[in-house]
Write a structure and sequence with these properties.
With about 140 residues, the protein is an alpha+beta fold. The protein has one domain: Aspartate Aminotransferase, domain 1 (Alpha-Beta Complex). About 45% of the residues lie in helices and about 20% in strands. A five-stranded antiparallel sheet has the order 1-2-3-4-5. Strand 2 and strand 3 form a beta hairpin. Helix 2 packs across helix 4. The protein is elongated. The termini are far apart. About 25% of the residues are buried. The mean pLDDT is about 90.
């Protein structure tokens, strides 16, 4: 015979706590998968573009470590609260002259009536170039 002093089911609070924990685990697994996809998107690039993408990645991580790596249309990207802030678009993807580093609409770059959201990037970028982009990433990530 069942003990009537012990409930057969979980309380509403316990059920909510279990649902919340399941969401946390799913989100963590999603972030891990997103980070792995970002790394894979960089790893499969031709050597010159991979080197450039790695420099971009290092700059983004240094400038806004709270951004989450992910992919955006197969491009290496970084997001805040699930929304893409910036991404690297390799030239080989569209067989164009140069790769670009771009900011998406979640980026907080508004500056008057006109501001840049995409930059042509090349392996000859200097530390000064990366610092300029890093400043924009830090601003965009707020």
């Amino acid at each position: 015979m069942a003990d009537s002093t012990k409930p057969d089911t979980f309380s509403p609070e316990e059920k909510k706590a279990m649902r919340d924990r399941a969401k946390e685990l799913k989100a963590a697994a999603g972030r891990e998968n997103d980070a792995a996809a970002n790394e894979q998107a960089i790893a499969i690039l031709p050597d010159d573009e991979r080197e450039l993408a790695e420099r971009i990645r290092d700059m983004v991580v240094a400038s806004a470590p709270h951004l989450d790596p992910k992919t955006y249309y197969g491009f290496p990207a970084w997001a805040r609260d699930g929304k893409v802030v910036c991404f690297f678009k390799p030239k080989s993807k569209f067989k164009v002259r140069y790769s670009t580093f771009e900011f998406d609409t979640a980026a907080s770059l508004d500056d008057g009536a006109v501001w840049a959201t995409a930059f042509a990037v090349h392996n000859e970028m200097t530390d000064s170039d990366l610092a300029m982009l890093g400043g924009l990433v830090a601003k965009a990530a707020t």
